[in-house]
Amino acid sequence: MKNRLAIIAYSVFMTIFAITPALADSYAEDRAAIVNLQGRYLFALDFQDAEAYASTFTEDGVIHWARGEIKGRKAIHDFLSSGIYDPTKIAEEGKWPAASRHFITNQVIKVEGNRAKAVTYWFQATNTTADRRTMVLGLFGHYEDELVRIDGQWFFKKRVIYNEGLEDRHKAGQKNPAW
């Protein structure tokens, strides 16, 4: 009986030991893919690449931002290509075109199978002054994302953009969104 219990305990331990690295590797791969998705989203936004921007969303994906909701990949494409969101529009006359760059930090990502949630801080900087050498730190806030994996690739299902500098678009002083 003692040997049988020892064998069972050993078998359970070895099974857990064998599975744990696989789960860790899976989470690491999912996290890396989600971080990559967030980066591709920002590069597309900053370079006004509507096709690449829309491709980070599911066909029925949603952006909820300061001016409302945009639903569906085509509508998201049309939104970015319209020029409605262009932080460089306010640029002073300068030697070369102004640029806007978005940055992300402090990411909390929770993966559950083919679904994930993420909360990520963001901030944005421009060089809209005439000399184009001065970085102007602009807006900042956080994203609350719902993500799905389809055919092995991660997409935004819903991205809520909280801009801490706009009235009614912040959560400062409220419950921690990073569960």
What's the SSE blueprint?
Elements: H1 2-46, H2 50-54, E1 57-65, E2 68-71, H3 73-82, E3 100-112, E4 115-126, E5 136-150, E6 153-163
Parallel strand pairs: 1-6
Antiparallel strand pairs: 1-2, 3-4, 4-5, 5-6
Please, could you describe this protein's structure?
- The chain is of the alpha+beta class and 179 residues long.
- 34% of the residues lie in helices and 36% in strands.
- It has helices at 2-46, 50-54, 73-82; strands spanning 57-65, 68-71, 100-112, 115-126, 136-150, 153-163.
- The protein has a 6-stranded mixed sheet.
- A hairpin with a 2-residue loop joins strand 1 and strand 2.
List keywords for this structure.
179 residues; 6-stranded mixed beta sheet; Nuclear Transport Factor 2, Chain: A; 3 helices; alpha+beta
Low-confidence stretches: none
Classified by CATH, the class is Alpha Beta
Distance between the termini: 45 Å
> How many strands in all?
6
Q: Please, how many helices? A: 3
Specify the structural class.
Answer: alpha+beta
Rough outline: elongated
Helical coverage, percent range: 25-40%
H-E order: HHEEHEEEE
Q: How is the main sheet built?
A: 6 strands, mixed
CATH architecture identity: Roll
Average pLDDT confidence is 86
Tell me the count of domains: 1
CATH topology-level fold name = Nuclear Transport Factor 2, Chain: A
